[in-house]
Amino acid sequence: MAKYRTQPPWEFLLTASRNTLQSYEFSRLNLAANLRKEIGSLLDQWMEENSAAMLARWLMEQRERSVLTAEASAAPDASAATADQSASDNLLAENDPPPQVSRRRG
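The structure corresponding to this sequence follows.
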């Protein structure tokens, strides 16, 4: 990684001609533009890598839920097996809709 100076070369700048100062200005602006391109590229790469990691995490969680669902449906009392789950565990779970309950009073 390149080491960048944080302070401009004051002695040089104070004694430089107008043309030299313009040249220095343009070189700094060019470096700034190149750094901006690098930052944009790094941000794109960072987002892609994070997305790939999040996808892998989501797939792992879906597989775990599938295993738990299969085990719960094989158990004699499925309601007892799912009692330990929190509401957030059901967020992405694909469950059948609840059966229609008659609201008649009799």
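The chain is about 65% helix and 0% strand.
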